[in-house]
Structures are given as structure tokens and as C-alpha cells.
Amino acid sequence: MSELRSQALADAAADQWKILPSGLTVLVQPMPGYSGTHVIYATRFGSIDRDFRLNGREVHLPAGVAHFLEHKMFEDQDGDAFAKFAKTGANANAFTSFDRTCYLFTATQQLDESLDVLLGMVGHPYFTEQTIAKEQGIIGQEIKMYDDSADWRLITGLCECLYHSHPIRSDIAGTCESIAEITPKMLYDCCEAFYAPGNMVLAAAGNITMEQILAACERHGLMELRPEERVQRLWAEEPMTLAATEKRIRMPVSKPCFGLGFKETPLAPDDLRSELLYDLILCCVCGGMSPLYRRLYDSGLTNPGFGGEVLRVDGCCCILFTGESDEPDTVKQMLLGEIERVRREGIDREVFTLCKNEKYGQLIENLENVEDSASQMADFALSGQTVVQQIEALAALTADDADAALQHILQPARMAMMYIEPDGTADLPEADDEETEDEE
Fold this sequence. Notes:
- 38% of the residues are buried.
- The longest helix is centred in the N-terminal third of the chain and has 19 residues, at 129-147.
- α10 packs across α13 (349-366), α10 (272-286) crosses α16 and α13 (349-366) packs antiparallel against α15 (387-396).
- 45% of the residues lie in helices and 20% in strands.
- It contains 17 helices and 16 strands.
- The strands form four sheets. Strands 1-2-10-3-9-8 form a six-stranded mixed beta sheet, with helices on both faces. The chain has a five-stranded mixed beta sheet with strand order 12-16-13-15-14, with helices on both faces. A three-stranded antiparallel beta sheet has the order 5-4-11, covered by helices on one side.
């Protein structure tokens, strides 16, 4: 990348970054001329954080606690936070992943009031036995919804095959049985351990200034010194062998679904370069600009959604390929053959350049949208990196780097296969549903 172009990209992505006395990391991307603002308040706490030592005391959680806590954060003694956001005109939401929980809102007015709702609800948790019991029923319905998602079942099924004990094997929402074990004490322990400002990031983009964000933080005591919580995550040793090589289930899907998973060596927490490189390799092997993707699509062997992704969290790194196909084993053999060919002959330099430029385009395009810009800042900051550093890391990657990485990743000996076969119920005629409605 030329020095001039590099500076232009850096200027475009130059979010303001501050670490407050409380330990909170704050990032702001002012976007003059935009009417909306998107704010994300995120913590490095996800579904895999189930065993930890807090101030010398060990805590062991059932599956689904991080997701359950995300739900409960919206309720306090004063009522429901969604109702408060509705009064300010903000559109609020939240989500939990394997390694983080994020609370967010988008607003065009009363921004300070919405910031107060966000910082207040996350900063002052409130749990009782009664409110937990109520939420267990609600989340139980959500768990059943995930059970009906073929895409999600592919991911969880592959993780169950690839890993013996790593908590990534468990569904993010847990099970109805596991969330029944949740107590107020568990939730308060999680807040003390992982909702400390030093473990969190506040990112905002749009019609906002750093001064506005800092003023809100001051109102909620985040400019004051906070003692650092002594938290140690506890991990069981995970071998590089597979728990299983294959899994099959039947679901109400109209077309067979399949997934291939490759277990890779876990990456160091600060090794974001390898994750970026693996993602580029997947783009070259089976992305929309790859020869394999065109052959599969033209022959009707896969749907347009076929592709690969890198799943990386603490203690875990795997590469997953998922899609729909009437001939999943044929697709598997074609994919393995293409991986071996590229490993032997090297990455196509033209395809590598195209994929790399596509990644550039995605990074830059995100800077022009308030939601994408804030999300991008928060995502990278949780991994200890800025948008500018991500751009620079991408610029430094070469096709030779990809060739070298391919010599040790995507090895068939560390591969598992997941099949979802139709159970026949998805093909029932719609008239049956209409008759049921008429009877009601």
C-alpha cells in the first residue's frame, strides 16, 4: 500500500480513543452531517466464560449464563429499559456471542438521555429469584427457536465434533435444564468479574462528540478510579484430537444441509494477524471469486450461501464450511481436492489480490455507516486493536504468507463432518395449515 493511500485510510478510520480512570475504553467516530448515532457498550464476557476464579474464589456456571444475564440487564427496580429507550426515541437491542456481550442503541434525538439509560442499566444490575424465574420461561422459548435453526445446528454440531471439553461445545443460550440452575448470586458474580469498566468498551459513531460521551461517563462515575477485579479464567486442557469425526441429525428442512469443520491450533490472544490471514485464505479457496465456488454453483451442487468462516475464541480456533446440497459428500471431496491443489500449487496471486481488495472495501465501506462504524470499532477494541491497525495488518499480508499458512491448516486428519437430513415434515402441503386455522 502506498504511503499516501495508507495515510488516507488511516485518516478515514481515525476514531478517538481514550482509556478512562475507571479502566473503560472509549472510542468515538464523529461523523458530521449524519443525523443518527449508534452506540455500543460491550464486555469481554460470552458463553465460553463459564469457569473462573474471582478474588481467589472459584465460580462454575451452567451453560447460557452470559446470554441470560444480557436479557436481565434490561430490567431493574424502575422497570424495563426498553420502555425507557422508547421514551427517548432510541431503538435498542443486545446480543451475546461466544466471547462477548454487547448492548446497543441507535438514536437521532435525546442522545444524552439514551446514554443515561444505557450506562445506568448496565452499571446497576438488579436480580431476584422472582425475575429470574420469569425470564427462564422466556429464554426457554428462545432456545427452542435456535433448535429449529439448521444454520445454528450446523455450527453447534461441528463444535461438538471438534472439541472434547471446550465450552464452545455448548449452545450460547444454554439448555432449558442449564438455565434452570441460574441464581441471583451467579449473575452478580458475573457482573463483578466481567462487567467491570476495565473489561468493557464504549464505542459511538455518528452525530456525536467525545465530549458528549465523556460527560455521560462522568454522570455515571466512570471517570473515577476503580479497583481492578482479580479475575482468572479457568480452562480445561483441550487436545488436538477430535471428539467425533461425524454427526447426523434429521430436521424439518427442505434440502440437506452439511458442514465441514477443521480443528486448528488455538491462536494467542494478540494474534489477530493469523485470523485475518485465515479469512483471506478461505476467500481464495471457496469465496465468490474462487474457481471452486463457480464450479459448485454452476453445477447446482450448493446454494449461493455456501462458504467458510474462521471461529476463534480463547483456547479455540476452527475453520468451518457450511451450505446446502443434495450431494454433500461430492461437495466435500471437491473442497478437499481444491484445498490440496492450492496447497500444492500455491494461492492464485490474482485471486488473492481481488480478495484482499474486497476486504479493504468492506473496512472502508463500514466507515460510512454509523452502525457499521461503531460495531467495527467495538469489535476490534475488544480484541485489543484499532480500525487503523486492522487496515495496516491487512496491507502487510502477502500471498506467500497464505502459502505458508496452508501448509499446516485445513488438514483432513483434523476434519469433522456434520449432516442435517430432511425428516419429511418440511414438505407437508400448506393446505393442512390453512385447514387448522379455519378450525380455530
